[in-house]
Task: inverse folding
């Protein structure tokens, strides 16, 4: 990886100052590498770090034998679920393939979560998948990464994403992570170009199914942790105090069943 921001190693101490700045007591670590080894590494950090409430890891859905890993990991009190790297898989229909369905069934059987990481092109398939497994607990990562930087190409860029997100909000019980929007915008992003996307997610899912996420350290490609946190505070400033409390902690605790 050539990017200096993403290539360096990060440790809990790098995040601690940001959590303290914003009065955040607990956080959830989400995998970045498609390996079981990284999942075990993150669980080790969680064991040693009081501020880490849980870990979303990874297993190989293309290897049915990884059911053993999933069962073993599920015994860890801070293991919450998995995130297949669907955004990086060339086959847009991968999640609907017969050979990977064991993984989604196992999440239901073991009562684990799925972080749905994809692009707007995956919206219809995620609707099919979530409808197929109505008992699966799912959160849409990064608002399904709308193409904010392409917004100027025409209204259909926003509308296609918005329609797909509305179907997921209306027809499934999926939650949505209020995160990742800055990295889908241009380097000179403004709150005005982010606001329509934030508003659509907030209206569609409601505060009870929206959780703020830092996307740190990836967010550093566009802004530091505090800037994104404060931007998100501004984007939700017209909500009730109860609604904001849900978005900035309550929804994540409910979805991941965190004992905090």
Result:
């Amino acid at each position: 990886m050539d990017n200096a921001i993403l290539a360096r190693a990060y440790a809990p101490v790098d995040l601690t100052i940001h959590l303290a700045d914003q009065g955040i007591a607990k956080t959830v670590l989400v995998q970045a590498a498609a390996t079981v080894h990284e999942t075990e590494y993150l669980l080790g950090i969680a064991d040693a770090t009081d501020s880490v409430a849980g870990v979303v890891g990874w297993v190989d859905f293309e290897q049915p034998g990884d059911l053993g890993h999933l069962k073993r990991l599920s015994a860890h009190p801070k293991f919450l679920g998995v995130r297949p790297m669907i955004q990086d898989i060339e086959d847009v229909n991968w999640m609907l393939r017969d050979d990977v369905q064991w993984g989604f069934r196992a999440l239901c059987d073991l009562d684990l979560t799925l972080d749905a990481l994809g692009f707007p092109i995956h919206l219809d398939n995620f609707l099919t998948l979530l409808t197929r497994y109505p008992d699966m607990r799912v959160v849409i990562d990064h608002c399904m990464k709308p193409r904010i930087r392409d917004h100027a190409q025409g209204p259909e860029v926003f509308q296609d994403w918005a329609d797909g997100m509305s179907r997921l909000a209306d027809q499934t019980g999926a939650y949505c992570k209020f995160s990742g929007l800055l990295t889908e915008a241009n380097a000179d992003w403004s709150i005005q170009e982010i606001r329509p996307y934030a508003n659509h997610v907030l209206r569609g899912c409601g505060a009870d199914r929206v959780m703020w996420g830092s996307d740190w350290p990836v967010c550093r490609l566009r802004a530091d942790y505090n800037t994104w946190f404060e931007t998100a505070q501004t984007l939700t400033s017209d909500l009730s105090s109860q609604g904001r409390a849900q978005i900035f902690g309550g929804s994540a605790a409910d979805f991941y069943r965190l004992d905090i």
About this structure: The beta strands are 27-30, 52-57, 79-82, 113-116, 137-140, 175-178, 210-212. The chain has a mean pLDDT of 96. The chain has ten helices and seven strands.
